[in-house]
Amino acid sequence: MVNAMKLTIRFKQTTVLTVIFSSFLVGLALARNDNDLHISWLLPIVLLFAFSWRRKTLILVASAALLGLCGGILRGHAFLSQLQPYETLYGEESTIRVQAGTDAVYANGGQLEFDAYHVEILRPINLKLPGKIQVRGRGVPIVYRGDIVEVTGSMYPTGGARQGRISFAEIRVVGRSGSLVESIRRKFVAGMQTALPEPLASFGLGILIGQRTTLPDDLSEQLSIVGLTHIIAVSGYNLTIIIRGVRRKLSRLSKYQSTVLSLVLMAGFLLLTGFSASIVRASMVTSLSLAAWYYGRKFKPLLLISLTAAVTAMGNPVYLWSDIGWYLSFLAFFGVLILAPLLKTCIFGMKEQKFLGQVVLESISAQIMVTPLILYIFSEASLIALPSNVIVVPLVPFAMIFSVVAGIAGMLAPVVSGLFAWPGTILMTYMLDIVNLFSRIPYAKVELSLSLFGMLLAYSLVITCMLVFAHKAKTRYGTITDKNIIE
């Protein structure tokens, strides 16, 4: 007599957590389309999840998916209700008090332009609102990041991660930022401009802290043509590369020193960039990976990405609803943390890669992941984006380090700062020469678009190839550890 065998699939705890965070994002997306959910549904789902936790079966995964889905819908509806007062302000003149999130210079139409946070309506109602708005107007010679500003004008809806925009506004600074960090940042910017000639100083500030307001228009256009605009944004990817490089170089000497130095670098970038969203995301990803590495644990990249995405989207659901930069950031992380290690294992096996070789492979992987979305949203493509990224992006971390040295030298020793800035001068001159040369190639940038179906098909093909690579890697090398693939 043959006993019937009962097949039971048991899931790991990391898989269950990944399902929760991913489902939360799905629920948050559904909430934007007014998919309602009564809170009474949450209690039985929580009870089902709790009772099935120890068994780790399909019932637990299903309840985890429902739990995340409900949590996302509830959070989305709560945030939508907080944004509702914006609807009453559109098209009406109002007076608001905000905190400047960026330095403001006179740009389009001779107006100051900056993003603003901590929105407080003073007239016609008295109310504090979440989110950020874009302000353009006149009235003061300059606005620094962190200043408290009163703005009078008519607000209108806008796209992206902003809840509104005000143009031709009357601007009045009611409080200058007394922050020590802001004071140091301004001196650092002045030091960069002292130590480096233009446009190298503006380029260095762009790749270091994302300041693009002083970048010449022709250089901005050249970067767009060769597909390198992302390097003058506040890039979490660049921070990730630097931290990985530090950990790689110092880990053999002292794990403690490597971790401490990495955390100090992250803190410095957060302070310089004013807690930019992309740097905060990168810091979360890197901090979790550092903690796992320091304590000798492994982590699953899908769990890491889904956790960070869920936390940032929960804090500001607008990221998920309309911020293209948020999607590009996580697609790049996906390429670096998942696609690049798979390609490395399949191409080079267990052989240890040099730092520059790893950066090149990660740059290619990130480019593969972001390209379909860029084609779908912007309907244009740089035909030389891949080679220009392979040549230039590996140099960005070094340019960032040399820019820091130049800025500090300009702050502390302006007379001799040029001597300390010469490595940055040479490197960034070379980078800009490459950008200028590539941008002159005929048909370097063409109009090319993907439909929604085409974009989804492209990502389906990428994921299919990744599954094949993962199967080959596991078959050839057995269990893949975090020494060759970040788990």
Protein described:
By secondary structure, the protein is an alpha+beta fold. The chain has three domains: 13-79, no CATH class; 86-177, OB fold (Dihydrolipoamide Acetyltransferase, E2P); 190-477, no CATH class. The chain contains 18 helices and nine strands. The protein has helices at 13-31, 42-51, 58-83, 85-89, 180-195, 200-209, 217-225, 236-250, 255-273, 277-294, 301-315, 318-322, 324-348, 355-378, 385-392, 396-412, 417-439, 452-477, and strands at residues 93-100, 105-106, 112-123, 127-129, 133-138, 148-156, 164-175, 380-382, 445-447. Strands 1-3-5-7-6 form a five-stranded mixed barrel. Strands 8-9 form a two-stranded antiparallel ribbon. Strand 6 (148-156) and strand 7 (164-175) form a beta hairpin. Mean pLDDT is 80; it is low at 1-7 and 478-487.
